[in-house]
Automatic annotation (TrEMBL):
Pfam family membership, one: Epimerase
Record keywords, A-Z: NAD
Residues covered by the NAD-dependent epimerase/dehydratase domain: 3-268
Name used for this protein in its record: NAD-dependent epimerase
Record InterPro entries: Epimerase_deHydtase (IPR001509), NAD(P)-bd_dom_sf (IPR036291)
Top-level division of the source organism's lineage: Bacteria
Alphabetical list of CDD domains matching this protein: UDP_GE_SDE_e (cd05253)
Amino acid sequence: MKILVTGSAGFIGFYVSKVLLDKGHKVIGLDNINDYYDISLKLSRLEQLGIDRKKAVVFNNTCVSESYQDFSFVRMNIENRERLPELFQKEKFDIVCNLAAQAGVRYSLENPESYVDSNLVGFLNILECCRQYNIKHLVYASSSSVYGLNKKIPFSTEDNVDHPISLYAATKKSNELMAHTYSHLFKIPTTGLRFFTVYGPWGRPDMAMFLFTDAIIKDKPIKVFNYGKMERDFTYIDDIVEGITLIIDKPIQERVQNNDFYKLYNIGNNNSVKLLDFIKEIEVNLKKKSKKDMLPIQPGDVERTWANVDALINDYNYSPKTSIQKGVKFFIDWFIEYYKQ
């Protein structure tokens, strides 16, 4: 199939692109390579896919991979109402995997406009292009953040999520509602995935795994919010990507025949890990104790996340396999090699 992967210079999008290529699909990667975090890391990910970093930074210029004959990349904003339809018309995609978004809970307090531009305007453009150009299936990223102050554990897609506590979460909930509307009105098969704390090699520098590792290596104190009383369903990148590609690869005909156009799943490790245990695992791998700066909970943060992934297991035989011990080790090994620590 020919698949558009938006956010392909991002953490999850880069991995999804690589696995789809290894499975024999044709992939067009799209990303605006914004400066929310280190652009060099994004360009290094693209280099892993055979894209020349100097060519990748040119807007609306399609770069062909030097190592994957079926991969090309274009730097573009999904909120660009002229360019995005042109790309759809030219490439005639079978499937769209929309992972492009302005990420981060805390940054949404500082720069709300970027969340509206990318996550609302951009997502509407994706939906409109899927409608106009007969896309067979739209798979898109939502977030565990939509659960807000939900007290029931583990979180289920059946739970009420009408009380987001960050603008980021509100935009992700909006994406789900927008997708539902387009599935209902225009019979577009859509599948939303609520990601739970994804980590691993090539991960984002604003995430706890990265921040803790970097600080401990540099003998700096780590910021431990809510005085360490936090739990997360930490999910290793390979397990996330397996779930995404299982959904992309499964034929959609049966769902269409059953008028089952809208689907929503949790995708996580099906387990909750205490933040202090997570930190301890990093210390073990670095052979170094951390200096902890214990702080109150941040605005927009939740104390605990835990995904009920029964539906994904039942429908796609999803099976997260990576323990926190293995996952942390894989990340630390990559971090030390990449940053030559």
